[in-house]
Amino acid sequence: MAEIIAAIDEGGASDLLSDAIAAMPPVASSGSGSLGPFTAGYSVQGHFTSGSVDLIAPSTVRIDHLHFDWHIDLSFQIDLDDFLPTFCIPQACVDIPCVGRVCTPRICLSWPTISVSVPLDDFAEASADFGINVSLAGGNWKVQIVVQNVSQLQFGLTTAAVLGLIAVAVTPILLLIPFIGPFIAIAVDAIIATIGIAGLTGFLGPIISPFISGLKIPVYDQPKHFKVLPASGPNDPDVFIELDSVSADVQHSNEDELVLSVDISP
Amino acid sequence: MYLNSDALDSRALRYADCYGQRFMREGTFHYHVMPNGAQDVNLERPYTINVSQRKRSGKMTQHSVALQWKNHEFIPDNQKIDVEVGDLVVWNCSDRNAPPYEIAGEKEFFASARMLNECGFSHAFGVPGTYEWGDAHGSDVAGIVHVEELTCESRSDLSRWRAQLSKAALVMIADGAAKPTEVRIVVGQTVYFAIVTSKGMTITDKRLIGIGVVCPPKTSKPAAKRKKGRPAA
User: Fold this and answer.
1) Which residues of chain A have a CB within 8 Å of the CB of B219?
2) Pick from A56, A216, A195, A112: which is nearest to B5 by CA?
3) What ipTM was reported for this prediction?
4) Tens digit of pLDDT for each residue in B115-149?
5) Nearest CA distance, A103 vs chain B (angstrom)
């Protein structure tokens, strides 16, 4: 029988995990991925807030509505030649008094490649099952819960809304391109259709998912050998104890509880 | 300040611009085509226009010279052309990745950056807006071009618009005045500025006067590597 046993119910576990998640630093990553036919660079950062905790014996902590607020800066290049027809300004002639007819040549235009930057803010929610991991590392006992299974991610914005934001970001860039005016609607529609909902989902999912699937929430962190009482005189030195073993699990009695058991020795 | 990439400036010709010069005397006229502002740095004039006596009476003949931007140089498709007195030569480079350029002749009358007599400059307006233009060399010649926006909601709209594009508006400049002073066109249409007489002028968006010449936005397309050597004269 362990010398020290600490137990909290689901309400207590919710508070504990909520505090632990709030104390975690923001997470970030950057890289590139396929956004439909485009290769988009991204820089993403975000932070978690806890949901409701469900303890499931013998060793599962389930968090429903685990919430991840994220911000992503997307940047990608679009070669407008892929979307717009070749466009020529026809020869234009004018009759100049005393000179005669003067004609400009036919001018054919190739469309430029544009760079698009799109900042997006959204959240993702998932329900995740965590296992309990106890380890002794660097002289410290650590208990953390580690994701084992994640339900499908639910994004806050609909993908159609995100595509709308991309359209909003593309339009002012297009407006600066000479001669594109009449083709703007065609270009925006074509670009958005090319990215498509599938392309966007396929892009955001792999970026956001690793933050959740790799989530580890610290629950307990204590030195194996630590002082419990300070010295109070020359004949009364510091008192240390040794945490010989630590275990954690979910136990079901009248209710489900997260239980931490510790064996100690002087 | 509103400043779009559709720069109206005869000092810095771009893909939607043409410069035209009539040759009113016999002779051999050498010139160069180079990035704008380089005429005082690069004194080479490798290309030639031979102007001979007029053999036929009647209307002038137009000769078009297409410029190619290659290996950081502008190359005319015809580096030596023969024309007759009174003929017009028109230059254009339709490569939108080419830098702004100028035509620089040996003689004072023959320069796109300072147009004197019997010459012209055309610009196809690609961005809607109101363009107040003036002379960067300080004369009072000025005018306004209103470029109206167009939305193509159907194929017939598109056809109608494309038909409009083939009509140019004409602004005549003589004796220190432009006529008409205001023209109204749709986006994509061309305005031809015909300079009959002047003391040496430009057609320049007033927003560009005094701030130099605006370079076009960079594209992602890599520039070609420069090769050694110059084009044959």
Assistant:
1) 112-113
2) A112
3) 0.75
4) 999 999 999 998 899 999 999 999 999 999 999 98
5) 8
